[in-house]
Prior knowledge:
The chain is an all-alpha fold. Helices cover about 75% and strands about 0% of the residues.
Amino acid sequence: AEIVASAGDSESAASALESLKRSYGAAINQPPRDLVLAKLYQNTGDLADANKVCERLLEAPDLASIAFAVNLYDAQGRSADAAGALARLDKVKANAADKELLQGEHAQRIGDRVHAAEFFAAATKAAPANPIGWRQLIRLQLASGDESVIQTALAAQSAVNHATATSSAKSSAKHAEFAAVARQTEAAVKLKQ
């Protein structure tokens, strides 16, 4: 059911939803099934029920619940509700980088590139070895078309890439991911020139 919920196939989601309801009965509304349930409701187009489940999820939220709720609310143009869900991040045990990434993704979706860049930059500072923050920051800056900002991001990412690669053997996988991001970004910059 979780795979179907993530895939976005509404027909399969409807089938999985019915199977879950038969299997779990009233217990379907309990964690962690409730998040899967909300995703299935969303994928079947039942936004009313998806929103009801989100309200329950946000009563005792975790990072995944907040992320889902923010995405759902953003998709419906409910910025105030998305901001309310994001305000609950202070109550959640999660690393700072993941919280910054979530806020940056929200800001980017609503068209606030300035704040998105600030959140993504904060994510890279909180977890410099995490390539996701760098990737998001570089993509945002590539979209801006500002060559100097792009070059600055590439230089910063390259420095972290080098530091990560030389720190220990454990970083080889992260180094490979950073190198791939750097190659993609450099290729995109060359295409723009």
